[in-house]
Amino acid sequence: MQHATVTASTPRSGFALQATGVEMSYSGTMALKGVDVEARTGSIHALVGENGAGKSTFLGIIAGRVVPTGGAVRIFGQPHAFGAPRQARRLGIATIYQELTIVPALSAQANVFLGQTLSRVGLLEERRMRARFEELAAQMSVSIRPDAVAGRLSVADQQMLEIMRGVQSGARLLLFDEPTTSLAPPEREALFRLMRQMRAEGTTMMFVSHNLEEVLDISDVVTVFRDGALSGSAPRADWTKPALIRAMVGHDVVENRRIEGAPRKPGAAPLLIAKGVGVPGAIENVDLELQPGEILGVGGLVGSGRTSLLRALAGLEPRSTGDLVVDGVAVSWPRSPREALKSGIVLVPEDRKTQGLVLGMSAMDNIAISRFGEVSRFGVISNTAMLRKSRAVAREFGFAENRVGTLVRHLSGGNQQKVLLGKARFRGPRILLVDEPTRGIDVGAKDEIMMTLRRLADEGLGIIVVSSDLEEVIAASDRILVMSEGRKVAEFDQGDTPVTVQDILTAAFKVMTHD
Ligand SMILES: Nc1ncnc2c1ncn2[C@@H]1O[C@H](COP(=O)(O)OP(=O)(O)OP(=O)(O)O)[C@@H](O)[C@H]1O
Question: Does the beta carbon of 440 lie inside 6 Å of ligand 1?
Fold first, then answer.
């Protein structure tokens, strides 16, 4: 039925989107240099490219948020009113953002229906909304309570809410900006099932992703952006993963290659021992040890307690408990990030926008803010020192040095992530906790970041990495701890035998099915 409605209101062209010669210049920076993109009605169209290639800018133009400096766009055959998000919504466009737009104080349900039908809210409407929420949640295999406070949900659950909101809006052209970066395989699969179902009903979807496997899995057409220009666009069948990488980066990249560290000294004293770590309602009785020079990966599904474990160690969970020994000395359990830092522990959080970066400050200030002592003399900040230090840190994580003066707000998502890593590094940790370090990072830069983490470990740091990308956890880690439902359920040492994704999932699921 829905399909018939869509075709009836869709002009003969059969295109949901026709963009020609779209240009965007941000005070001299050409984010888009005249691109042509077409998307057929009822298709899934992927946009890929390196960090800063212009993908989000393009989506922003289609969403009506960004006014291009040149070019034309037709939506279902009609000229697009640029810079008018409301008008874009009327044309049937909805966007699911990479940076979450969840209102933390509102309930999960209120977030899904935000901006829709609220004026008509009555009891009946309330019941209808609840039924619709539950239907969507079931379709997407999520178990979020409708009245849960959104701000208390995990990033993954917030992402699911964001998707539910987009789907619920009844849009005919849905734009997804990296919808899957914080989702584990089962959530991803649920989303893809839903996307396929919506495609069958005539919805057009355009999505940005750095995960090339999922791009090849779900899309009908893949368009590659490179440095603001189109470097290829073809049906899925014409692409292979290496071909996509070459179009994006210009050369071959081996994804998730195993990065071995320097040989570990047998019998080295642990850098960190945490015993009986608990966070009420999230994790229970987790023990872990970390050697200097070691990367410990934490695998598990969304909701397994991975992030809570890192946050507890970083002093961000006031109700957490446990015993901590750093470098052979028992220290009190950290109650604030400042206390954690005193023990040399620093966290790179997963949600860079709300927890990590000040968007209105430059990359340089964001990096330097955490350690003024390093860049000042007698209490006076030295700009030269700040520039020098922040450039050095930026370079380490593959962030263009000449952009350290740019406001973080004006950086692409992937480049913000690199600044966040640089900022944590600048604090001088001995123990670095990284939550989703390659979230939103392109395939080339991902390898660079993993190499940098390995180099830091070789310099003697202890690093704990949480990532939804289990292949990445395996490639990067010396040992892997598997969490499920708030508990540690397995530990693997890759020095003995290399671990597979299947090993991790089996360990995680075994507990869930036995309970
Ligand atoms: N509001 C802005 N002001 C100035 N420059 C901007 C602004 N928004 C984006 N840019 C610049 O435009 C370029 C393209 O950025 P865009 O966010 O579109 O890249 P992207 O392909 O989505 O990258 P990523 O994969 O890292 O998210 C970058 O150089 C970015 O710094």
Answer: yes
Nearest ligand 1 atom, CA 32 = 14
Pocket test for ligand 1, best of 30, 410, 442 (most atoms within 8 A of CB): 410
- The 3-class SS string of 153-219 reads CCHHHHHHHHHHHHHHCCCCEEEEECCCCCCCHHHHHHHHHHHHHHHHCCCEEEEECCCHHHHHHHC
Provide the token pair at 226: 């490179």
What would the DSSP string read from start to end of 274-304? EEEEEETTTEEEEEEEE-TT-EEEEEE-TTS
**Burial, 268: exposed, middle or buried (Cβ in 10 Å; 0-12, 13-18, 19+)?**
exposed
Going by the DSSP 8-state scheme, the letter that residue 334 receives in this structure is: P
Residue type, 188: R
Tens digits of residue pLDDT in 226-248? 999 999 999 999 999 999 999 99
Per-residue tokens: 413: 């998502």
Q: What is the ipTM of this complex?
A: 0.95
Structure tokens at 106: 């509102």
β-pairing, 487-493 vs 479-484, is: antiparallel
CA of 48 to the centre of ligand 1 (A): 14
Ligand 1 pocket, residue 414 CB under 6 Å: yes
Give the pairing type, strands 272-279 and 283-290: antiparallel
Backbone φ and ψ for 313, nearest 5 degrees, come out as -65, -25
> Could you tell me the pLDDT band of residue 184, with boundaries at 50, 70 and 90?
confident
Residue 448 alpha carbon to ligand 1 centre in Å: 20
| Ligand 1: centre distance to CA 31 (Å) | 6
pLDDT for res 300? 84
Cα dist. 354→108, 154, 357 in Å? 18, 13, 7
Q: Which atom of ligand 1 is nearest to the CA of 58?
A: 18
User: In the beta sheet, which residues pair with residue 15?
Assistant: 40
pLDDT by residue (tens digit) across 325-336? 999 999 999 999
Kindly give the distance from the C-alpha atom of residue 413 to the centroid of ligand 1, in angstroms, as a whole number: 7
Burial of 93 (0-12, 13-18, 19+ CB in 10 A): buried
Nearest CA to ligand 1 atom 24: 51
